[in-house]
């Protein structure tokens, strides 16, 4: 893979990850257009490392706000951590249940079947984009009486929806979780902060999973595993830097549109993108 390809993918990831339009779908489509295999272990790990770059952008962007909402006192910190842990736990249960179901229905119980094999399916990507678009538009149109925080009940529901997003590229995690928060009456800014705090918790787990997958595949296919892994990780680190910078720019755009009543426009984009991707199937 060339550095220019890494740069393109990192910029696409950085902007799309922090906008509710599914970064994974956009990166996978960019990979396919460049003749790369989005289901290959090296590519799925690269995608996760690009996610890591945007995760750091999220931390930098929200740090001042999180000091007030999450670290104001020990009591408040404990309450917020409990909600994040509950939501992440529900995500894990739903994600594993979906993985089991997909493995037995789509993979016909094949022990070698991997969920990543579906990541290049443009029909699934189109469906995910459409689902995200409908959810975003619905959350923008439905009027709710907003509360002041994420409750235990809403954290369970948001975690459940996040779990549904995991296997399906195109079903934007941030779009789905922020929209779910809005539909549950969680204020816009708090929904945004909670969604990206969940991303910070979830990303290291996904990195570990994809790193293990790559190591397993490299051990079977490459005689020089260490050299091959070092090359992949060096490219990933370069991509992380670019996605971090692009992510900071995207966060300002997202916050501006979310707080100024333009959230529905992201939903409209997802629907148009869905039709475009479907036409490529």
Automatic annotation (TrEMBL):
<keyword id="KW-0378">Hydrolase</keyword>
<feature type="transmembrane region" description="Helical">
    <location>
        <begin position="122"/>
        <end position="142"/>
    </location>
</feature>
<keyword id="KW-0472">Membrane</keyword>
<keyword id="KW-0046">Antibiotic resistance</keyword>
<keyword id="KW-1133">Transmembrane helix</keyword>
<dbReference type="Pfam" id="PF02673">
    <property type="entry name" value="BacA"/>
</dbReference>
<keyword id="KW-0812">Transmembrane</keyword>
<feature type="transmembrane region" description="Helical">
    <location>
        <begin position="84"/>
        <end position="102"/>
    </location>
</feature>
<keyword id="KW-1003">Cell membrane</keyword>
<dbReference type="InterPro" id="IPR003824">
    <property type="entry name" value="UppP"/>
</dbReference>
<comment type="similarity">
    <text>Belongs to the UppP family.</text>
</comment>
<feature type="transmembrane region" description="Helical">
    <location>
        <begin position="229"/>
        <end position="251"/>
    </location>
</feature>
<feature type="transmembrane region" description="Helical">
    <location>
        <begin position="40"/>
        <end position="63"/>
    </location>
</feature>
<protein>
    <recommendedName>
        <fullName>Undecaprenyl-diphosphatase</fullName>
        <ecNumber>3.6.1.27</ecNumber>
    </recommendedName>
</protein>
<feature type="transmembrane region" description="Helical">
    <location>
        <begin position="149"/>
        <end position="170"/>
    </location>
</feature>
<feature type="transmembrane region" description="Helical">
    <location>
        <begin position="263"/>
        <end position="280"/>
    </location>
</feature>
């Amino acid at each position: 893979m060339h550095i220019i390809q890494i740069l393109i993918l990192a910029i696409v990831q950085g902007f799309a990850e922090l906008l509710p339009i599914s970064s994974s779908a956009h990166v996978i489509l960019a990979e396919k257009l460049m003749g790369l295999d989005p289901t290959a272990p090296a590519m799925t790990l690269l995608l996760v490392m690009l996610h890591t770059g945007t995760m750091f952008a999220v931390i930098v962007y929200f740090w001042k706000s999180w000091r007030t909402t999450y670290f104001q006192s020990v009591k408040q910190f404990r309450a917020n951590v409990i909600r994040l842990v509950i939501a992440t736990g529900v995500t894990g249960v739903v994600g594993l249940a979906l993985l089991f179901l997909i493995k037995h229905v789509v993979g016909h119980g094949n022990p070698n079947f991997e969920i990543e094999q579906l990541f290049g399916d443009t029909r699934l990507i189109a469906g995910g984009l459409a689902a995200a678009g409908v959810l975003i538009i619905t959350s923008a149109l439905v009027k709710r009486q907003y509360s002041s925080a994420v409750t235990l009940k809403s954290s369970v529901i948001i975690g459940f929806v996040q779990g549904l997003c995991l296997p399906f590229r195109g079903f934007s995690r941030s779009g789905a979780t922020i929209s779910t928060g809005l539909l549950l009456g969680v204020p816009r800014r708090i929904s945004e902060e909670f969604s990206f705090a969940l991303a910070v918790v979830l990303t290291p787990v996904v990195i570990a999973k994809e790193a293990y997958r790559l190591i397993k595949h490299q051990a079977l296919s490459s005689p020089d595993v260490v050299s091959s892994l070092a090359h992949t990780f060096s490219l990933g680190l370069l991509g992380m830097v670019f996605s971090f910078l692009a992510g900071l720019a995207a966060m300002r755009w997202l916050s501006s549109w979310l707080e100024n009543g333009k959230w529905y426009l992201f939903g409209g984009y997802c629907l148009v993108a869905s039709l475009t991707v479907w036409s490529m199937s």
